[in-house]
Amino acid sequence: MQQMADAVQGFVSLLGRLMIAVVFASAVVNKVTQFSSTAAYMASEGVPNPKFALFGAIGLLLIGGLSLILGAWTRIGAIFLFIFLMAASFYFHDFWRFADPGQRQLQTIQFMKNLAIGGGLLSLAAYGGGPWSIDGWIALKQEEAETTPRPRAAAKSQGA
């Protein structure tokens, strides 16, 4: 029964990481293929030094997304994506600035969606990538190494 629970946990943690990562992977493709228009949009939203910020955003998205997909350095990758997400939410979904009720509602929904994704990222930062991840495999190998008895060294000499 425990093996079944471990397999389910491994599968669910992998699926969760991949579902979150696909959001950020598609953002990388969009930002790279539409670099100039994205930088112009960022400038119009008040992002300081938009081209530099866009390079940084792409870096955070790439490193964080790959980290989640592979489950390698998952905690660090999740924090990178969380930083990107909070900055994006502040600059692009600032619902508190809109007087138009429709725009305010749309931006509130987008902000809340990002808040929920951020909660998932914080969970990954707290608990790691799960058993079906590179991090999980490394932890398993470390645990095996620590619990495996070491052979005793042969005596150097039989007499004194």
How much of the sequence is in beta strands?
A: under 5%
Structural class by SSE content: mainly alpha
**Poorly predicted sequence stretches spanning 5 or more consecutive residues:** none
Using only CA atoms, what is the Rg?
A: 22 Å
Overall 3D geometry?
A: elongated
Helix-strand pattern = HHHHHH
Determine the number of helices (DSSP H or I, runs of at least 4 residues).
6
What's the number of domains?
1
What level of helicity do the residues show?
A: over 70%
Task: Explain the overall architecture.
- This protein has helices at residues 2-33, 35-44, 50-70, 74-92, 101-127, 134-147.
- It is mainly alpha-helical.
- The longest helix is centred in the N-terminal third of the chain and has 32 residues, at 2-33.
What topology emerges from the helices and strands here?
Layout: H1 2-33, H2 35-44, H3 50-70, H4 74-92, H5 101-127, H6 134-147
Helix pairs in contact: 1-3, 2-3, 3-4, 4-5
Task: Give me some keywords for this one.
single chain, 160 residues, mainly alpha, 6 helices, 77% helix
Question: Gist?
Answer:
This protein is 77% helix and 0% strand. By secondary structure, it is mainly α. The protein has one domain.
